[in-house]
Amino acid sequence: MSAIKILSLIPPMTQLNTPYPSTAYLTGFLRSQKFDAVQDDLALKLVLALLSAQGLADIRAAALAQPEEARSASVNFFLDYFERYQRTIEPTIVFLQGRDTTLCHRIASRGFLPEGPRFSVLDAYDDESGDPLGWAFGALGTIDRARHYATLYLNDLADVIRDAVDARFEFVRYAESLAASQPSFEPLAQALMATPTLVDAYLDQLTVEAVEQAQPDLVLLSVPFPGSVYAAFRIAQTIKRIAPNTRIVLGGGFVNTELRELSDPCVFDFVDFITLDAGERPVLAIIEHLQGQRAADRLVRTYIKNEAGQVEHINWPEPDIPFAEIGTPTWDGLPLNDYLSLLDMLNPMHRLWSDGRWNKLTIAQGCYWKKCSFCDISLDYISRYETATAELLVDRIEQIIAETGETGFHFVDEAAPPKMLKALAEELIRRKLTISWWGNIRFEKTFTPELAELLADSGCIAMSGGLEVASDRLLKLMQKGVSVEQVAQVTRGFADAGILVHAYLMYGFPTQTVQDTVDALEYVRQLFENGCIQSGFFHRFVCTVHSPVGMNPQDYGVELIPLPPTTFARNDVGFIDPTGVDHDLLGQGLK
Fold first, then answer.
1. Backbone angles phi, psi at 81, to 5 degrees
2. What span, in angstroms and rounded, lies between the C-alpha atoms of 261 and 566?
3. How far is residue 176's CA from residue 182's CA, in Å, rounded to a whole number?
4. Of 178, 207, 313, 462, which residue is the least packed, with the fewest Cβ within 10 Å?
5. Cβ count within 10 A of residue 79
């Protein structure tokens, strides 16, 4: 066992219903290499600390310090009904954690929880029957109905925190605007040096507790989204204050997409190393460096501040850890019984993202297609494609079930390969292993009705995939490799097998006209009417610098809007489309 101790942290905000999997992967890998590695989820712990009787008392004190004329409707309602909020918050949290389901009857009666402004959404469902959600939950869906009301109640409290305590606060996006495609680190640095908010103070205390418990030599901060960047740096700032000899590594999805042109040395006042792409090999190299077994100039895909005070990217040529050798993720150390099963939207597919504690697992590294012109296919996490055997994957599944006691799996691949899904399904059936699973695919012709039946027999409950647009011209321009007719056939095959189908849809793609968007909407209506899909969502196309559109805009008939000089984050880039369509206006209707 190595002497070095490693702590991996999930910073706020990510998910509340299940752990974000990056620390589980890293911790599992490091333990397979015989390192002393532990993990913690400060995103969940921060929310649970705020949503407690003491947390609400502190929020109330902050709200009362506001001038009356500055208080929002949400804050005023909270203050008026504070005693009721404080009395109901902890029982409601326990209910959402699945530990006191009998409370559902009181919550569903709508006489238990205070109902703030967020409950106005129920008016949209009112059909004069006196039961606005009868169509969704029926006579017996009491637990789900209560979970939906309890989620609206928490959303009311999130609005209060945002309006009275910290304007940057959201349950899944904390201070996102400070980091997303932010060309300069200065806004983040200023926010980190400002007077701490109540949310900051809570996070600082949780960080102190985590470090005191783990006593790490090395902390790995995994930052998947812009909305978790500020909190990651806040955590790093606290660690530098209380444990200055602890080294800190920043990595994750945000770093991989947005910090590839990093040059601001001020970032390294907070962290010591920043790694790109798959983290296993770079972290091993950093550990060897800290143990005196490797010089700094032999680090792998890692930014440091060199002796001259400049940012330097070091990439010693060394092969990555093969996908088959990264080990099994472990959730040991994460508070699995404390996650909240929320039901914020009545869309059946969105429910899977927020309700239930899913074990997240990857079937393959990267994307086997890697051609879509809107995707960051030039980046390693998509372009490097590797698989493992079905036998090894099911071994990992069995090990995870034994550890967590949960048999639900979300396969988080960019696009799960049909050949591997077939082999996986056959192996699950051969071992008579009962699981429920869902994932993301391309609606390609390989997914025949027979394969859909096989996947359903193995436990597949839902599939999501990109339909994008109902235009063969645009699908060809996107290099999706599918046709409109093919998507209809594949989705119908899944639906007939009893698998829930969700379609990702896109608007605002280069040269997409108003008619193209209207046609897509009509096509989606027909897919719903014919039972091919049960869920769909329109996303606004965003051009990124790492996608084919961003790298070769002339091939797509658009002109990029020049970006300002960048020393920190760079990803999204605006463009001029000669069609001149007002996609923002269309988006209002599509939502």
1. -115, 30
2. 7
3. 10
4. 313
5. 18
Taking residue 72's Cβ as centre, other Cβ atoms within 10 Å add up to 16
Per-residue tokens: 278: 């798959």
Cβ-based neighbours of 126, under 8 Å, separated by 6 or more: 132
**Strands, DSSP E only, in 483-551?**
500-507, 535-540
DSSP state of 322: P
What token pair was written down for 201? 């103070």
d(CA 177, CA 160): 19
Tokens 């103070």 belong to: 201
* Helix, coil or strand: residue 574: coil
Name the amino acid, one letter, at 543: C
d(CA 15, CA 357): 10
Helices (H), 165-197: 186-193
CA distance 232 to 227: 10
pLDDT at residue 139, as a whole number: 67
Q: What is the pTM of this model?
A: 0.94
Burial 461-486 (b: 16+ CB within 10 A, else e): ebbbbbbbbbbeebbebbebebebeb
Longest dimension (CA), the chain: 73
pLDDT band at 54 (very low <50, low <70, confident <90, very high): very high
Element (H, E) at 158: helix 142-164
The torsion angles phi and psi of 353, rounded to 5 degrees, stand at -75, -25
pLDDT, one tens digit per residue, over 295-306 is 999 999 999 999
Q: DSSP for 539-573, please give it.
A: EE---BTTSHHHH-GGGGT-EEPPPPP-SS---B-
393's tokens: 């994957």
